[in-house]
């Protein structure tokens, strides 16, 4: 019962009930990435014959975070590549970094120098500041 309510009312925990039904009815599984995300497309020839691109979507494994889509799948899902990476021998380029989860709100969050929650002490004022008076 808990999974039913979660799937019915939340979109950030994988897929909703509508996505599940649409995927079952019209989706063609294309592949799965290393994070467990599953990719689908519509094999609808009427849609592509009318000049519209095919629909492509992803069902996330767990929490829906778009940064977990690897670079090859990102190119395919945004219609930059016609062939999905599951059918190609895709290797990322040297400058493409692996996924790192978003650290906002955690101990791994970025804290710049001078930040209130940072470890460093804020630099003292140099005396060149003058308060504005109307």
Automatic annotation (TrEMBL):
PANTHER family from the UniProt entry: NADH DEHYDROGENASE [UBIQUINONE] 1 ALPHA SUBCOMPLEX SUBUNIT 12, NADH-UBIQUINONE OXIDOREDUCTASE SUBUNIT B17.2
Which InterPro entries does this one have?
A: NDUFA12 (IPR007763)
Question: What name does UniProt use for this protein?
Answer: NADH:ubiquinone oxidoreductase subunit NDUFA12
Region called Disordered, residue ranges: 92-134
Signal peptide boundaries? none
In this entry, which stretches build a coiled coil? Answer: none
GO terms for biological process? response to oxidative stress
- Domain of life according to the entry: Bacteria
**Single GO cellular component annotation?**
respiratory chain complex I
Organism field = Kaistia nematophila
């Amino acid at each position: 019962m808990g999974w039913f309510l979660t799937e019915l009312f939340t979109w950030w925990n994988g897929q909703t009930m509508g996505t599940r039904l649409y995927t079952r009815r019209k989706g063609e599984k294309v592949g799965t990435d290393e994070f467990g995300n599953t990719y689908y497309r519509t094999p609808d020839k009427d849609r592509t014959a009318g000049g519209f691109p095919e629909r492509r979507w992803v069902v996330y494994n767990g929490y829906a975070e778009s940064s977990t889509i690897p670079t090859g799948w990102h190119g395919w899902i945004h219609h930059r590549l016609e062939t999905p990476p599951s059918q190609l021998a895709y290797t990322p380029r040297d400058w493409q970094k692996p996924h790192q989860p978003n650290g906002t709100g955690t101990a791994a969050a970025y804290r710049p120098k001078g930040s209130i929650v940072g470890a460093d002490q804020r630099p003292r004022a140099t005396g060149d500041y003058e308060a504005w008076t109307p």
